[in-house]
Prior knowledge:
The protein contains 16 helices and 8 strands. The chain is an alpha/beta fold. The strands form 2 sheets. Strands 5-4-3-2-1-6 form a 6-stranded mixed beta sheet, sandwiched between helices. Strands 7-8 form a two-stranded antiparallel sheet. α2 links the parallel β3 and β4. α1 packs across α8 (193-213). The protein is elongated and about 90 Å long.
Amino acid sequence: xxxxxxxxxxxxxxxxxxxxxxxxxxxxxxxxxxxxxxxxxxxxxxxxxxxxxxxxxxxxxxxxxxxxxxxxxxxxxxxxxxxxxxxxxxxxxxxxxxxxxxxxxxxxxxxxxxxxxxxxxxxxxxxxxxxxxxxxxxxxxxxxxxxxxxxxxxxxxxxxxxxxxxxxxxxxxxxxxxxxxxxxxxxxxxxxxxxxxxxxxxxxxxxxxxxxxxxxxxxxxxxxxxxxxxxxxxxxxxxxxxxxxxxxxxxxxxxxxxxxxxxxxxxxxxxxxxxxxxxxxxxxxxxxxxxxxxxxxxxxxxxxxxxxxxxxxxxxxxxxxxxxxxxxxxxxxxxxxxxxxxxxxxxxxxxxxxxxxxxxxxxxxxxxxxxxxxxxxxxxxxxxxxxxxx
Length: 390
């Protein structure tokens, strides 16, 4: 069943393997949530799991690299509890159907947060609150957290009971990716662990970001994500295939690179390639460059393999260029250039006897064009001179 959702007021739509903490936790929840559940980021909370029965698990994530966000008088601790109380009061979080988690890494602790975590019965909740109130009463100076602390302590008692009795505090590792890594460790080559984790985290972030850009709720289907991730792992773990770990670059990144007019874009301009085709060229160029780095770092390819690969593509370019000249000599040079470019882009080839992703050949040719080792216009070398050599 689909439950209607609305974002809470304090959400902010808008490193761990190169990512922040929220995408890591989002990926973790997407992979471990039960069937039928969905996961959101910066919607009901930093991260939330939405269950088919209408219950939700909301999670605040805190990085504790520089300071302890759960010390007794931490503004971050009491802002979290204050936000949860406001969410209940506004009806944004369902009373008695919400579980509350505070996730902190690396490990930190505090007396108050531990007491609140341990309290599950009504009596234990009351005792924990009374202890906090008594210590507040003895304070002689105001503290930065006072506004949020008082907001929570003045919330309706039933809301305090709901939050504390359903509250969990997790702060047991300095590696939040470990849970994701553990899911694949038994069946995947250790050399691929971090790359697969990075792919999953990046996929979760990219899909949520895309929904935000499209003005949709940043809520992802857990079943679909698990299926897509499983297929990626299976493909990546196939010996005869080199799998890309990259996702499509953001539109702003593509636009910026086109406007900077690197040599391979100038090469496409010489033959009159339209913008949509340039966008694909830039995307494949960037993804190919990232793949080469990732595969090399993982020990999946070696520098000599890439050198042989470039020599193969250059030779194929020469053969196709000769064929285009023989068959289409009567055509305009720009047309012949586009024919050559497009035929090269669709070559199917293997790198070190392993199949490569569809974008890799195209991206590799654009990389060679950027270095002026190949070109599309018959007179590209004379027209561009030494532009590509550094």
